[in-house]
Amino acid sequence: SDGSIRLHQMTSEYPLMQWNDSTNGQPIIALQWALTRPAVFFVLDASSNIYIWDLLENDLLPVAKQTIPTESVVTMALLGEPEKTNGLLGIALAKESGQIDIHYLKKKWALP
């Protein structure tokens, strides 16, 4: 609820990493690991901002942020086939109106 993200190992109750206030205090609505690139995850906050984290590039801050300005996004889901190495990774955004947008991401965040 405060925008903090914690990365845990299954064998410990203590986080390996913790990023406080990663969304400038906005509650996190969804967080999902990339299906095709294990070090990348995506975060959606309550202000319809999407943050892309690539832990191999920067483990302190997101590598990109995109605001969806037109309408409030209520959830997201990633699309891709982990067994294929074609670099296709998409994100489905569900908006308050019921509209669903699908966007394909740059290959640098999708390639294994």
From TrEMBL:
<dbReference type="GO" id="GO:0005868">
    <property type="term" value="C:cytoplasmic dynein complex"/>
</dbReference>
<dbReference type="GO" id="GO:0042073">
    <property type="term" value="P:intraciliary transport"/>
</dbReference>
<dbReference type="InterPro" id="IPR042505">
    <property type="entry name" value="DYNC2I1"/>
</dbReference>
<dbReference type="GO" id="GO:0045503">
    <property type="term" value="F:dynein light chain binding"/>
</dbReference>
<protein>
    <submittedName>
        <fullName>WDR60 protein</fullName>
    </submittedName>
</protein>
<dbReference type="GO" id="GO:0005929">
    <property type="term" value="C:cilium"/>
</dbReference>
<dbReference type="InterPro" id="IPR036322">
    <property type="entry name" value="WD40_repeat_dom_sf"/>
</dbReference>
<dbReference type="GO" id="GO:0045504">
    <property type="term" value="F:dynein heavy chain binding"/>
</dbReference>
